[in-house]
Amino acid sequence: MKRSWLGAVVPLMLLVLWEGLWHVPSLRLESVSRPVEVARALWQGIADGTLLAATRETFEAALLGFAIASAVGLALGVMLGLMPRLERIVGPSVDAMRPVPSVALIPLALMLFGFGVKMEASVVAFACLWPVLLVTIAAVRGIEPRLLEVAHVLEMSTARRTFAIVLPAAMARIAVGLRLALAMALVVAVTVEIVLNPRGLGHGMMSAQQALRFDQMYAQLLWIGAVGWALSGLTQKLLAHWPGANLSMAELRT
């Protein structure tokens, strides 16, 4: 608890400095609102529901894209991790596609899906796929070989071996990739909304900027940071309870 309170020192100091600089006429900028005005705009956005509605829209696309990326990344990552020969065939294609910026796919996604959640989720899924895929491949390759040998001796089917041995043994490492992908999902979703998609928190922030409502713009920016921080903390706690690579022989036989 003490450490949590210490983490609030820097943000509070920045807010005090922000308020203090606003009272210096030579340093005052019209595009920089007072913290009090930003707080008032933030409370108004929460009270009238506009900020919460925009948050729901952003999370809808971010979580949908994350779910797609997780499903594809886990399935493909386990397959490539267990089959080195297949990985040598598919690897060059993965290496060629991975450096492509996700925002570069916005024109293509717009032609395929039009404006809306599908377009945004597709770009998010492309961005989130790579951390899940690469971490899963590495995690599967790092499994204790004796576990796979026991599965072969017990004549387990591919499906049972995957769900009874591979995923439980690799899940502690895979969780790291999932956490990175989930944080990336929110970033990419907001970016797509700022660039093009007329929905969510990113579009709301750009609309406030164009209307010269800088207090609302800063309020939404701070809200995005707070939501991202809360999401990161929640996923860290949830994934911390996932099983590690501690499988016993008795567990394999059940």
Question: Overall pLDDT, averaged?
Answer: 79
Beta strand count: 0
Number of domains: 1
Query: In CATH's first tier, which class applies?
Result: Mainly Alpha
**Assigned CATH superfamily:** MetI-like
CATH architecture: Orthogonal Bundle
Strand content: under 5%
* Biggest sheet descriptor: none
- How many alpha or pi helices? 12
Q: What is the third-level CATH name, the topology?
A: MetI-like fold
Radius of gyration, in Å, reads 23 Å
- Indicate the structural class: mainly alpha
Distance linking N and C termini: 42 Å
Spans of 5+ residues with little confidence (pLDDT < 50)? 244-254
Percent of residues in helices comes to: over 70%
Globally, the shape reads elongated
Q: Report the order of strands and helices.
A: HHHHHHHHHHHH
Describe the structure.
The chain has helices at residues 2-6, 9-22, 35-47, 50-82, 84-97, 106-113, 117-141, 145-153, 158-195, 200-210, 214-240, 249-253. The chain is mainly α. The protein has a single domain, classed as MetI-like fold, CATH 1.10.3720. Helix 4 runs antiparallel to helix 5 and helix 4 runs parallel beside helix 7.
Compose a concise summary of this entry.
This protein is an all-alpha fold. It is built from twelve helices and no strands.
Key terms for this structure?
single chain; 254 residues; mainly alpha; MetI-like fold; 12 helices
